[in-house]
Amino acid sequence: MNLIDVYIYEVTRRLPKKIRDDIRLELKSKIEDSLPDTYSELEVKDVLLKLGDPAELAASYQDISNHLIGPLVYDTYIRTIKLVIPWAIFITTLVQIIESIVFYTGEGALLSTIIKTISITIATIISVLFHVLFWVTIAFIVIERTGNFDNFKVHMPFLKDQQQWTPDDLKKVKIIANDKNIPLNDIVFSFLGIAIFSVVYFKANHLIGIYTSDERTGLKFVMPIFNQNTLLSYEPFILFCIVLSIGLTFYKWKVRQWTIPLAVINAFLQVVTTIVFILMARQPDLIHGPAIPYIAAIMETTASKVAFSIDRILLVIIAISIVANSIDIVNRFKKAKIKP
């Protein structure tokens, strides 16, 4: 492993994209100028040790010393924020969901309750994030201004690399190309998507349907659109896809970059889910029987025309699903083959 390249990577990955290339060239030139024509690994380590912790060097390039958080604590500040915020969002969401379940009386449409819960959860998350950012920032300002950062670092067990930085730390670093990287937000949204799909699938007869609304009763569920028995006849296959999706997402969380094994599992999952979806969509009794004449009456047309339109819509969705999943499979393999 080239320690110089790894050191430059550790510095530039913390910088804004617009200045990365310039800093990369400048830093590489600076390091090479400090080394003899033929050099040993020990000499490289000495030069890198003089340059210091990549996090602090990156902070100095951004002139963070002119802001609230200086370069000495900036990297730890960012890592603390990244650690605390996901947990704050998770706990807030969990509390709101549990509260909604406990206080749900069964009155009114389930969809109305879900929409209300989502709205309250979003508002609460925004409030919590504001307080988290405010108090963490205040804490780091106080720590930096009072010079207690060294003592503070001892009490941060959940943050990695709290020891004094040395060039040997570079040997533990994995260089991940930007296009291969799997962002944390992708993983979070994957878990969220799995949860939403699971709820919608198993509660489709209470969520996906025809609704009416008036000022007195609000949103009222009339009847489901899909035949729940038909949907649940594919339950073993759906459960397999859900479990595989969860496993794939945890695997993505672990490796944090696209690899060939990961791309293969993803391709298998996409193929299986597409096949299950096509089989399900082509079931003649997928649509709840009374829903078609009800929709026809509302739209002032015939039931046969409504059934024909629904059939065409399902065909379009199937075609879009096949194309989208094929593109996703190809793109994931392309990312997996990118050299670091």
Automatic annotation (TrEMBL):
Keywords: Membrane, Transmembrane, Transmembrane helix
Transmembrane segments: 84-106, 118-143, 187-211, 231-251, 258-280, 313-330
Keyword Transmembrane helix in annotation: yes
The name this protein goes by in its record: Uncharacterized protein
Species for this entry: Lysinibacillus sphaericus OT4b.31
